[in-house]
Amino acid sequence: MSMFTNAHQFSIRGGIYNNVARDQINLYESPQTVSGNSALDILSEFIKDVGAVHDSAQRYPPPKCHPETRKGIQTAILEWIHSQQNGRPVFWIHGPAGVGKSAVAQTIAELAEIRGSLGASFFFSRSHGERGRAEYLFPTIAYQLAVRIGEFNKVVTQTLRKNPGVLRSSLDIQFEELFLNTCGSAMKLGGKWMHQPRVIIIDGLDECTETVFQQHIILLIASVLKDKLPFRFLIFSRPEPQIREAFQAHVPQSLLRQTSLDKDSWDARQDMKRFLESGFFNIRTQARTSHIHFPPLWPGREVIDELIEKACGQFVYATTVLKFVDEEHSHPMEQLSIVLGLKTAARGNSPFKELDVLYHHILFSYPDHNKVTMILGASIHLSSLSGLRRWNNHPCGPTIEVIEALLGLHTGEVLLVLRGMHSVLNIDGNHIQILHASFRDYLCHKSRSGQFYIRDSTFIAHLFLSFSGVKIIVTEPRRMSVLVNDFEPHRDYMPFIISRSSNVLLLSMFIFTPLLNTMLLGFIPLGIISQFLHWSIALRFSFSFLAAINLTEFLNDTMEYISTGLDQTHTGILNASFGNIVKFVVGIAVLFQGKIFIVQHMGYAWIHLGKHAINFRLVLPCRFVITCD
After folding, report:
1. How far is CA 602 from CA 195, 581, 598, 622, in A?
2. What are phi and psi of 32, to 5 degrees?
3. How far, in Å, CA of 91 to CA of 81, rounded?
4. Which of 550, 572, 546, 547 is nearest to 559 (CA)?
5. Could you tell me which residues are beta bridge partners of residue 200?
6. What is the pLDDT of residue 621?
């Protein structure tokens, strides 16, 4: 006897029902899916909130390559997809944060869709809920393959009817049931799809929330390469160590093709130039700005070149700049002035909000924020010390051993802490270098970086080296050899001392001089107090002399800071003005005291002496002494 006799146009999914009639009880178990539900229905319902497919509305508008950019890498990928003789079914494209990997992946997915060679796509994103979870990867891929391949749809439908719980199973079971076994059964059914390779695109593998899943996905893909399935795998990610190690361990090099997408590859500079020129042209010619009188060829070649240099290959930087300049209720030329630092932005109107979110996300992925900030700060401070030739001019910055010694870290600890930061750092053997100027700018602006703020100044850098060096001397003197071996000053820095001194002596001077300067700051208020309290002339002279030693360096640093934004002519005028200001002030002072003969003798003799004494930061004291002679 059947239950619900003559009922029609409805379905029941799941459950056990009792049918009681007189003395007979019948039990009915409803299947989880009925014959009318295909894999498309089931999978579509399961992944509806994920939005990881290339044409998903949740990703609109997706990042895409400008029509005139990235042509080289696009051609290489498309040729790899369509080549019948291709013996390398896995193509790994890696690059630092913000260089445009997702834009390339999106463009390739759209082109492959048009050409009928797209199998599936999945765009990971850690900050978008389900899009960062590995459990949705293979159901999403299976859904797209079922849409495009009839035989695959037929087989996966049968699989889901038999075992609907596979959607909540482990990653291994999902891969085996929804992809591997389904592909094998679909291939037995035949069809044209088997003779034309299709590409499966996985973008942002490093954005998968669990590191272990990142490596496991590569392992699963590698496990089927020997089966010669009619699919190719195109994977985009940052060059994080765990991903690189997984490729090296599980994918034979004969089956793997890889390339780097960075500032020095695939004509990145020319592509950036075309992208910016096109973007600014669109801003100039759009209807919204038709009433604005732009200068001819605005913003000009020099500005374009400056933006390219600041971008360091990051298309996300260029995109952010164009979006900011083209804000609907703002004047484009004023917005560009803010970007270039020629005008101060209003609170909350930062031109680099998107970049800040990216860098904040990268830094916050590490539990020990303080240690990350310490190491990055040490790298920036050591690189800013102009007197240290080997540390400052090495293409990859200070050595890791030096940073570990100065911070008191164990050997190898720096590499462990920075293990996941290869998207913003170049860790080349034994050196650390910040890849993007925009990342350094982010770290050195407190309003942008917050708790990761690093104060970038020569004074702070000298103090860091001093206190860290003294700590090493007191607690771990054996590690001083690391600093001595990696230290080499500029030959124009105190040349007559360098020629007669060892690295140990010179390094000691670098360590202790900032401490001495800090102590000398105390003589500034003492000099002022002694003048008002009419102390003895010997004390007043001594305090003023000692205070002037440190003020000379401050004056020199101030001139250097101001002159960074000026051309050579104005820099020369500034240096001449500040260079003579001491002579001017002293001259006025002695005139008020009626000592005209001193002014008459303030000639070039003592200026010549002061020029040599500048290496000892004694220009002001020397002039003070001679004037008061």
Report:
1. 92, 13, 6, 12
2. -65, -35
3. 9
4. 572
5. 120, 233
6. 45
User: What are the tens digits of pLDDT across the range 287-328?
Assistant: 989 899 999 889 999 999 999 988 888 888 899 899 999 988
Instruction: Tell me if 278 sits within 8 A of 66, measured CB to CB.
Output: yes
Residue 567 phi/psi, 5-degree rounding, is: -80, 180
CA distance 337 to 339: 5
**Distance in angstroms (rounded) separating the CA atoms of residues 19 and 38:** 29
Instruction: Give residue 152's pLDDT band: very low, low, confident or very high (50, 70, 90).
Output: very high
| Cα→Cα distances 12→22, 37, 210, 401, Å | 25, 12, 37, 68
Question: How large is the average pLDDT for residues 70-97?
Answer: 90
351-356's contacts with Cβ under 8 Å and 24+ in sequence apart are: 351/320, 351/321, 351/324, 352/317, 352/320, 352/324, 352/438, 352/441, 352/442, 352/448, 353/320, 354/316, 354/319, 354/320, 354/323, 355/98, 355/316, 355/317, 355/320, 355/438, 355/442, 356/442, 356/448, 356/449
| 225-230 long-range Cβ contacts below 8 angstroms, 24+ apart | 225/89, 225/90, 225/251, 225/252, 225/255, 227/180, 227/184, 229/183, 229/187, 230/187, 230/193, 230/194, 230/195, 230/196, 230/197, 230/198
pLDDT surpasses 50 at 21 = no
Summarize pLDDT for 552-579 with one digit per residue, the tens. Answer: 666 666 666 565 555 666 667 766 666 5
CB 396 within 8 A of CB 428: yes
Provide the 10 A C-beta neighbour count for residue 302.
8
In sign, the C-alpha dihedral spanning 594, 595, 601, 603 is negative
Q: What secondary structure letter does DSSP report for 180?
A: I
Residue 543 burial (C-beta neighbours within 10 Å; 0-12, 13-18, 19+): buried
Residue found under tokens 């001491």: 582
Half-sphere exposure of 497 (CA within 13 A, CB side): 15
Q: Structure pTM?
A: 0.68
Instruction: Kindly report the length of the chain.
Output: 629
Find the farthest-apart pair of alpha carbons in the chain and give their distance in angstroms, rounded: 133
Strand partners, 237: 94
Question: Among all chains, which residue has been given the structure tokens 């400056």?
Answer: 306
For residues 541-559, average pLDDT? 71
Dihedral angle sign, alpha carbons of residues 426, 428, 432, 437: negative
Kindly write down the DSSP assignment for every residue of 497-554, as one continuous string.
Answer: HHTT--HHHHHHHHHHHHHHHHHHTTHHHHHHHHHHTT--HHHHHHHHHHHHHHHHHH
pLDDT given for residue 350 in this prediction: 75
Range with lowest mean pLDDT among 26-35, 122-131, 197-206, 276-285: 26-35
**Cα–Cα distance list, 330 to 287, 297, 344 (Å):** 14, 20, 14
CB 269 within 8 A of CB 263: yes
Q: Are 200 and 231 in contact (CB under 8 A)?
A: yes
Q: Which residues pair with 121 in a beta bridge?
A: 201
Q: Please give the full DSSP string across 136-179, using - where no structure is assigned.
A: GHHHHHHHHHHHH-HHHHHHHHHHHHH-GGGGGS-HHHHHIIII
The single-letter code of the amino acid at 486 is: D
| Residue 543 pLDDT | 80
- Indicate the range of 281-285, 290-294, 337-341, 350-354 predicted with least confidence: 350-354
Q: Which residues pair with 25 in a beta bridge?
A: 20
Among 122, 145, 99, 317, residue whose Cα is nearest residue 207: 122
Q: What is the dihedral of CA 225, 226, 231, 237, to 10 degrees?
A: 10
Tell me how crowded residue 169 is: count the other CB atoms within 10 A of its CB: 15
